[in-house]
Each structure stands twice: as structure tokens, then as C-alpha cells.
Design brief:
CATH topology of the domain at 105-243: Nucleotidyltransferase, domain 5
CATH architecture of the domain at 105-243: 2-Layer Sandwich
Low-confidence stretches: 277-285
Radius of gyration: 19 Å
Shape: globular
Number of helices: 8
CATH superfamily of the domain at 105-243: Ribonuclease H-like superfamily/Ribonuclease H
Number of strands: 6
Strand content: 5-15%
């Protein structure tokens, strides 16, 4: 097969080198029963997933010079169900933290939520309406460390209260980062989350807004989660929830971060899709 022209979302050799060991190890543990090695390079499968996450296109609209939708779907669902993409994400997160001079595992996380509209293919039973933000769809919850790196993700119907997402996030944090002893949340989270954190050995602090503040005022440390939620919007697949299952929505976030963290490790940048490169303004890592 002739070499195709690259897309901006494609992995560079440097970024692929950070991801390849995990993917290759997975491939070695899952040989075909028939001994067939597959028709598509595994790097191209990852490129297709990053292309879709970045551009937001439907499965059937993946470019013809990338592996076909059926092959890409197979790996996306396989890696989602066996946790491979989460393992990859956690290894990258540890590397970014160490590069920043921090311990591999965080001791503090910041929690917040974001409501997004759901696409027409999303089952109504998995969606709802955020009464406060007037958004019909799903609610995405994140727990991030002080660098803005994602530690845990939870996706519920938008009608779910922050307490529901908060307790789910804390449960996930306890599994994925048992070193965490402190969590910061905004006033949307209530005492139920504080009590749940206490049972897990995590001190949950509700950071109250200064009543004299007008409009959006970034709060110390807590602004990191706001920044991460904003950065995720560079990936069009996350601007609206297109996934039939909430579990797939969770792992779309992990793939967006798997796109972002290798860029941070090698010092590369990505421009916003809102404007051409020469008009995009400041670049985000």
C-alpha cells in the first residue's frame, strides 16, 4: 500500500514511541486464533481513533485512506472493555507528572462537571436535562490533579446531581490513585460528597465562591479543572456526546488526553479548530 498523506492528528514518530510499547504488548497477548497478523498497522488504528476524536466525524465518515470503520471500532471497543486505553492513559499521566518534577501519583485532585448536549443516536434512557444549566444530554465529571491531568472520569445523564458524579469520581480516584488524600470541589457538591470522601480517606473541601466576585473568577488550584474541561473542547467528538453508551463517552475523554499528553512530553503543540493556524492565537499543549 502506498504511503498516504498525513493528517494533523496523526502520531509523530516521537509520540508513537511513547504509546507503542503498551499497544504492542497488548497485541502480543491477543494473537489471532488463525495466526493472522491483521491487514492494518496498529499505529494506523490509533491514528484513526485520534482523527475521529479530534474531528468528531461519524464512524462511516472516516477517510478511506485510514483503516475501515469496522476495524477501528473493533479496537476501540476491545480496548475500552479490557481497560487498555486507561492503562495507557495512566502511564502517560505518570510520565508527565515526573517530567514536571512531581511524584508519579497525585495527592490532591479537583472535581468538576460539564453538561453537553447528546446526539440523536444516544439512547434517551441515558440522558436527562441539567435543570441549572438548561442543557439536555449528559453530564461529564472529571477529577484532575494540580497539573490539570485527568485522574478519573464519570458520565451520567445531565439530570444527575453533582453528588452522584462526585461519589462516583471519588470511588474511581480511590482505585486509580489511592495516594490522593485531598479533593477540592465547588459549591455544587454537597455534604454527601464530603462524607463519602471521608469514608474513603479523602478530605473533601467545598471551596466557596467569594460573594463579592462578579462573573467568572478563577479560583486557586480549582481553575485547573476548568482549564482541562476547556481543552477537551478542542476535540470535536467531546463537544457533543455522540456515544451510545456512557462507558464509551468516558473513554473518549481518555483518548483525548492520550492525544494531549504525548504532545506535552515532547513539547509539541496543537492549534484550535476554531480558526486557521495563523489566526488561532495562543496554542494549547
Amino acid at each position: 500500500m502506498s504511503e498516504r498523506k498525513s493528517y494533523k492528528s496523526d502520531l509523530s514518530d516521537e509520540r508513537w514511541a511513547l504509546i507503542e510499547p503498551v499497544i504492542t504488548a497488548w497485541k502480543a497477548k491477543h494473537p489471532s486464533v488463525s495466526g493472522h497478523q491483521g491487514n492494518y498497522e496498529i499505529r494506523e488504528i490509533v491514528n484513526a481513533l485520534l482523527y475521529q476524536t479530534r474531528t468528531g466525524c461519524q464512524w462511516d465518515y472516516l477517510p478511506h485512506d485510514l483503516p475501515p470503520p469496522g476495524a477501528v471500532k473493533y479496537y476501540f471497543y476491545k480496548w475500552r472493555d479490557d481497560g487498555t486505553d486507561q492503562t495507557l492513559h495512566e502511564l502517560l499521566r505518570g510520565s508527565v507528572r515526573e517530567r514536571a518534577g512531581r511524584l508519579e501519583d497525585p495527592s490532591l485532585v479537583v472535581l468538576d462537571t460539564q453538561s453537553v448536549r447528546a446526539a440523536v443516536n444516544v439512547l434517551a434512557a441515558t440522558t436527562g436535562r441539567d435543570a441549572a444549566k438548561k442543557v439536555p444530554g449528559r453530564k461529564r465529571g472529571l477529577a484532575v490533579d494540580v497539573l490539570g491531568l485527568v485522574v478519573a472520569v464519570a458520565v451520567f445523564a445531565a439530570s444527575a446531581h453533582e453528588n452522584e458524579l462526585g461519589t462516583a469520581l471519588l470511588d474511581e480516584v480511590a482505585v486509580r490513585a489511592p495516594s490522593v488524600v485531598k479533593a477540592l470541589v465547588d459549591q455544587g457538591f454537597k455534604q454527601k460528597v464530603v462524607q463519602h470522601g471521608r469514608a474513603l480517606g479523602v478530605d473533601v473541601e467545598i471551596v466557596e465562591r467569594n460573594p463579592r466576585d462578579v462573573g467568572f473568577v478563577p479560583q486557586p488550584i480549582r481553575w485547573r479543572v476548568e482549564q482541562t474541561l476547556g481543552t477537551l473542547m478542542l476535540h470535536r467528538r467531546l463537544v457533543r456526546d455522540y456515544e451510545s453508551r456512557p462507558a464509551s463517552s468516558v473513554f473518549r475523554v481518555y483518548w483525548a488526553e492520550t492525544d494531549r499528553m504525548p504532545r506535552r512530553l515532547i513539547g509539541a503543540t496543537a492549534t484550535s479548530w476554531r480558526a486557521p493556524a495563523d489566526l488561532a492565537g495562543p496554542r494549547l499543549g
